[in-house]
Amino acid sequence: MTKRNSILLGFIVLKFALQYILISPEYDLQRDEYLHLDQANHLAWGYLSVPPVTSWVSFIIKLLGNSVFWIKFFPALFGALTLVVVWKVIEELKGNFFALILGATCVLFSVLLRLNTLYQPNSLDVLSWTTFYFVLIKYFNSQNPKWLFIGAIVLAFGFLNKYNVVFLLLGFLPAVLITQQRNVLTRTSFYLAVLLALLLVLPNLIWQYQNSFPVVHHLKELSETQLVNVDRWEFLKSQLLFFIGSLPVILSGLVALLLYKPFKIYESFFWAFFFTLIVFMYFKAKDYYAIGLYPVYIAFGSVFLENVLQNGWKKYLRTVAIALPVLLFIPMYNFAFPNKSPEYILKNQRKYKDLGMLRWEDGKDHELPQDYADMLGWKELARKVDQVYSDLPDPVHTLVLCDNYGQAGAINYYSEKGIKAVSFNADYVNWFDLNQQYTSVLRVISYSEVKNELEETKPYFKSVLVADSITNTFAREYGTTLILFKEATVDINKRIKREIEEVKNY
User: Fold this and answer.
1) Rg (the chain; Cα; Å)
2) Does pLDDT of 301 surpass 80?
3) By the 8 A CB rule, do 203 and 317 touch?
4) Helix axes of 295-308 and 68-92: crossing angle, nearest 10 degrees
5) Is 254 exposed, middle or buried (0-12, 13-18, 19+ CB in 10 A)?
6) CA 133, CA 110: separation in Å to the nearest integer?
7) Contact 12, 84 (CB under 8 A)
8) Are the C-beta atoms of residues 358 and 365 closer than 8 Å to each other?
9) Is the pLDDT of residue 224 over 70?
10) Which of 103, 115, 144, 343 is the most buried (most CB within 10 A)?
């Protein structure tokens, strides 16, 4: 094994090690992770909130035993592969030892450590962006049409993982049009590559059509409930914090793309950077949507700085450039990851607030970061549902109906009774088993809705029992209540079918 490969392997091992120690065992999985894992039990070419690739990965995790180890392995793997691709970009740009070390260090000690702690489409999304940029660089260097087809495959796979990759296209297309690379639009191979990409994503587009384009409804819902609270200045502030230790390298990369003669061929990357950010800001996108934009600019900056910092006193700045991401990671270790207890966070709230970590999707500050609060209370919920379920004389005819996908997914993941909870929220609206006639309902409902639920539903059952609730005050689901409605006086299945239709037609 060469020295280069040995060092790269060392970075990969360190990456995996860090990902596994950055989450305290007192936290459960995060709300979204349960939904994504449950998709393995309902394979399809599309879902209400995400394309199909996540379900494929979830199916592999299921085959491997569905343990937390494997759930955390795949986002760590995608993060490690992102580091590898940046390494390959630097080699393609003729970067040597220093550039490789600098680039790998900047990618390793960045927001990717936070992003890769959660099993969500975001980690693979960043890898898709970085790989597509790498393929573009290979094409610009060689003008070999095969790279257009490889790029089409990468882009299609990225699209089937997360629709966010469309922002990449919206940012890069105008950049190509205003630079010398626009000649690609005159080549037949480009249009054949576009056709290939469309064919690869066609099954998902057909699924969207057959299901009345739920992605449009999902985006509308996001816009009304979450993106409306996005502040554009806060978006830009977050961009600086995501790669704060690598900021000099990224800025150097942008300067090099405009002024460094060997990078003239890549000028479109300079304009694409700004066009992409403008598109994100125009649509008031969440700040982390743009993370995939940055790794390739770390590669450009690393190679440029290797050439600039090679004579006289400038050599000493090499050490500073490599040390900076590491030194800035050290204080962030205590605040940017779920490796501290809720009690610790409560005692040190000011620092979390200053970093903007207490701001939730509702635009307000809370006691814990939203992701952390979303990683508490789930085991407690599943345990209590199991207890109520096991005390039923006829549990098979009892429907476990939840308020949201997090509740349903957590119960299905942790339940020892084989419960298949459902909800009218997210993809669960399509996963009701109506072949079974239900006579009772175990309702899992937010505390604020308990009174209304009792008033509205109690008349249709002979008996009602408020069985239990979530007592973890730090959990976002604190107060979530279990209500058992027994012996229905109406046809539950008919009412469920009607409710499903109303939700789908909304």
Assistant:
1) 25
2) yes
3) no
4) 40
5) middle
6) 19
7) yes
8) yes
9) no
10) 103
